[in-house]
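chain below, 155 aa
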Amino acid sequence: MYGILRFFLFLLPPEKAHYVAMDLLSIGLKLPVIKNIIKNQYGSNTEHPVNFLGIKFPNPIGLAAGFDKDARWLHILKNLGFGFVEVGTVTPIPQDGNPKPRLFRLKKDLALINRMGFNNQGIDAMVERLKKRPEGLIVGGNIGKNKVTPNEKTM
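prediction:
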């Protein structure tokens, strides 16, 4: 199944494939059969909690910033078994990021080059989504300055 899905996703530009894959997961999780398969295969693993700096993480599996820039997919990521997720990079006001294309596949190296440029919907949109975050998922954030903010205005 993965091979077929991967084939079709690789027909799309990388950035588009990212959004299509997450949209497909979102739809799949609305179907009880698919949701049960995903939760049984990847769901919240609480067998190996981690205590660090007074915070109890449900498991040691986390996701770094950049994947879910706007905190749009926290419920999906929890269902995939992540114990913590770092959202962002978010900026004070929305910005488009760099011109497209800005995400490049290196198929031979099984890698990506990311030159996104902090594309995001801004902190206010993220705050509203974070108010609805799934219980038990620890969420951290990565913040940055807008391109229009002069360096001398940053700390």
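The mean pLDDT is 91. The chain has five helices and seven strands.
thats it, cya
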